[in-house]
Structure formats: C-alpha cells, structure tokens
Amino acid sequence: MLLDALQDADMVKGSRWVPGGKVVNWPKSREILSRGGSLWTRMMLGIPLRDATGGFNAFRAATLRGIKFDEIASAGYCFQIDLGWRALKAGYRVVEVPITFVEREYGQSKMSQKIVAEALIRTTWWGVKHRSRQLRGLADKKRRELV
Predict the structure, then answer these.
(1) pLDDT tens digits along 108-121
(2) Residue 129, domain extent
(3) Cβ-contact 24, 103 below 8 angstroms
(4) CA 17/CA 38 separation, integer angstroms
C-alpha cells in the first residue's frame, strides 16, 4: 500500500490515525501519548499529518536528498516528525495511508521520558519559529496595504 501511494507522492506515511488505520494491543496510555503528540505537532507546525510520530514511511530517493536527510539530528519520535516537517516545508507531497500497527510480543520499547521530552521541546521550538514567521508575514502584508 505504501509503495502504491508512492506513485503519486514524494513521501508516504503509514498512519494509525487516519480512517482505516488502527493499533492492536496498545494500552490506552500509549495511544493517548501518540495521538496527543501528533495533535500537538499539527497545532504547533500547522501541518496536516494525522500520525506525525509514525515510523512506517516510504520515500522517493530525491525526497531524502532534498530534505537533507544526513543533517537530521533528531531521535525517537522527533526523528519521525522531523522527516515529515522537512518534506512538507520543502514542498514535497506527503500522503498518509492507513495501517494496522500490532504491538510487539517480545522485546522492549525504546520509548522513554527523554524521547518524549525531546519531541515536545523541538516541536515547540520549531512551532514558535514557524508561527512567528507567519505573524511577521501577516504584519508585513498589512503594513503594505496601509501604505
């Protein structure tokens, strides 16, 4: 499904939170954290991604080169947000397709408070910068209209 969608997109995110997507065997607390992180990201960055923290992605090679993949310093959830944010800012077409995410039966999640804090701090910082630029642009436009 991801590769099919890549025919008409530059980046495809497998999404748990679009119609048809779901999670299996997750505790409610983990779902709230994931949905909340994506909501926060949408609000701060003004991007349309419903599952900004999801890690099931497909890219065109040119997209990875265009977003300067090798310069990304984020980790954890923030890494996933950074990929989508960079692609959208660069003007690439990013689409989401539904997936079913099944929680692992063995092993341990790498999720930690440090990973959550990094994502919160970075998305807040990026959002403040982004929204400030938007406000400056509106103020400049209004100033030009008054002259």
Answers:
(1) 777 788 888 999 99
(2) 2-146
(3) yes
(4) 9
